Amino acid sequence: MARAIWSGYINFGLVSVPVGMYSATKEHEIDFHQFQKGTSDRIRYKRVNERTGREVPFEKIVKGHDVGGGEYVIVEPEELDDIAPGKSRSLEIDTFVDLDEIDPMHFQKSYYLGPSDAENASSYALLRDALAKTNRAGIAKFVMRGKEYLATIRADEKVLVLETMFFADEIRDPDEELGELPRKTGSGKQLSMAVDLIEAMSGEWKPASYQDTYTERVKELVKTKHQGKEVVYSEEEPQATNPTDLVAALRASVEEARKARGAKKKTTAKKTTAKKSTAKKTAAKKSTAKKSAAKKTSRSKKAA
CA nearest 85: which of 132, 131, 142? Predict the structure, then answer.
């Protein structure tokens, strides 16, 4: 079993549920070290005192906040722990909200919450099942590793999941970041065809169908270069569709998507028919075997 990266209590009303927090996701990562080009010399980073030029051990480093004019306020780790709400051990649920009301923009990272001990597992299960039944999530705040997080706590089948979230003022205004954006297109022919294309390309969400092809290519590149060979990938860069060609491009895309969907349905139908045929053959074999066994039994009785 994995080790909890945080432990504390979910608090709602007068109820406290002890839980541990565990990583729910992992990213595809390929480690690379840095070298000086043309050499085998590693590049390494050191924590150096800019006045003395000497390296400083990690345990002797403290944090300082710039207050302007070259002046810094030094803050010790213990001081940060002392001001943490709930001493960094509390997930205080403020309210329960409908999951569908939360804009996905607010979600940051997912963690599993597990019961800390068997004695309180029933309290954990009760909260999980109640959240699932109401399709709601608890909104809470907590402190971890010197940072306060806003979070949702929701049910996902057997487990409680905590999603760290961005505070409202951490989400940037698109108008400020991007400037003037296009106005609504109205309800013209282009919009109608774009809707048709979306409908033609719609399907079920199947996360296992999507693979990280870039990471696989990087692995292949490393492997091939290690063998002294060269890998060349040639893919054309996409080009923006000319606005005058937009309707034609949409029409062609809709036709192509519908053909692809029709072909997919035929393939699925063939597989289903094949499965049914196999099932019938298996049932027929079992029936024949039963009849054969019955005949043998009847002969044995007669012989007796």
Answer: 142
The total of other beta-carbon atoms located within 10 Å of residue 254's CB is 19
Res. 111 pLDDT band, cuts 50 70 90: very high
Neighbours of 183 (CB within 10 A): 6
Name the DSSP class of 51: T
State which amino acid sits at residue 120: N
CB 115 within 8 A of CB 19: yes
Q: What sections of the chain are H helices per DSSP?
A: 77-82, 121-134, 174-178, 189-200, 213-226, 246-303
Of residues 213, 194, 88, 64, the one with CA closest to residue 141: 88
Q: Which residues contact 158 (CB under 8 A, 6 or more apart)?
A: 128
**The whole model's pTM is what?**
0.70
Residues in the chain: 304
- How many other C-beta atoms lie within 10 A of the C-beta of residue 142? 24
The answer to whether 181 and 174 have CB atoms below 8 angstroms apart is yes
**CB-based contact 10:19 (threshold 8 Å):** yes
Sign of CA dihedral 157, 142, 151, 4: negative
| Weakest mean pLDDT among 17-21, 170-174, 248-252, 276-280 | 276-280
Average pLDDT score over residue span 152-157: 96
Contacts made by residues 249-256, CB under 8 angstroms, sequence distance 24+: 250/190, 250/193, 250/194, 250/196, 250/197, 251/193, 253/197, 254/193, 254/196, 254/197, 254/200
Task: Calculate the average pLDDT of the chain.
Answer: 85
Instruction: Check residue 35 and give its pLDDT.
Output: 92
Give the model confidence (pLDDT) of 218-275 as tens digits.
888 888 888 888 877 777 777 888 887 888 888 898 888 888 888 777 776 666 666 6
Round to whole Å and give the CA distance between 59 and 70.
Answer: 24
Helices (H) and strands (E) in the chain, counts: 6, 9
Q: Is 86 helix (H, G, I), strand (E, B) or coil?
A: helix
